[in-house]
Amino acid sequence: MSWGVDNLPYGVFSLPGESPRVGVRYGDKVLDLTAALHDEVFAAPSLNPFMARGRTAWHDTRELIRNKLTDDLSVTEPHLIPLAQVQLHMPFEVGDYVDFYCSLDHASNVGRMFRPDTEPLLPNWRHLPIGYHGRAGTVVVSGTPVKRPRGQLGEGRFGPCEKLDLEAELGFVVGVPTTLGTSAGAFEEHVFGVTLVNDWSARDIQAWEYRPLGPFLAKSFATSISPWITPLEALPRIPGRPQDPEPVEYLRRQGDWGLDISLEILLNGEVVSRPPYSSMYWTPDQMLAHMTVNGASLRTGDLFASGTISGPEPGERGSLIELTWNGTDPIKLAGGETRAFLEDGDTVTIRATAGDLTLGEVSGTIV
Fold this sequence. Notes:
The chain has two domains: 10-89, SH3 type barrels (Roll), CATH 2.30.30; 97-365, Fumarylacetoacetase-like, C-terminal domain (Fumarylacetoacetate hydrolase, domain 2). It has nine helices and 25 strands. The mean pLDDT is 95. Helix content is 17%, strand content 28%.
């Protein structure tokens, strides 16, 4: 898959003994943008200053980089550094973090598990994209070890999580802040790009604590993201999934913001699921509109995620709780091991492609 001029994701890197700075991935190298473009905004240790410049600057810079990598490569070549020589860092400073619940198939699967005798979807689900405020301080870059969380597991029980899970998600990174309610049509004015997300979940802690106010300690201990942010401009778009009933006015789509992205979940190097983002019910423009309709502000570096991505088929589920039907049908790995939930030492990797583009991967090991 391509890391060529049609892709050009941004990240933050450093060489030994040097400060972190912004670069763009090209093939198996990273282009040092401070040196290549002579722009000090890329000398910052995060993408935030550049993202705050806005959509025109994002587009113009992307075109400039593409030109330098095609028409002017002899001049640019000295500023291309092999990835094997660099360390990758958090690509941006996270302001606020919001996690949504936008997959009809995921919500239906979970509903059938825990409410088998009733309608799997709660009455509000088809009327608004459900979300909750997460913890920005525990968003970490791919490769960071994930410590098994501790919490209350039931009445009088406290200890390490026994049902640790993954959630394959797509994250959206805000570039331009706003203090007004943002319509669905203003999505690309504010969102800079996308990143892969694993929103780790402690299912047993969650089951005990979530009523009546929703996720808390079960979701706040770690959220892993890819080191690369793929510009929104690079992604192929498709119509979103049909919605019934029609959403209220502020949530009505004003463009094609369905995304044809294919994910793979690997557990200890073995592919266990292939969730399709194209099956998501609520699209990211609707998430942004709902998040700000009450007047809540957006800041540069805010991150909002799609929630677990699951498709309609058994091999397209985006979490272990679905893949193993709450642990009752464990996954059988090639080496003979089985998994109902994650064990210490397990490594989860989520990778994705969009057409011929690769969105990279996000990986973490349980300790």
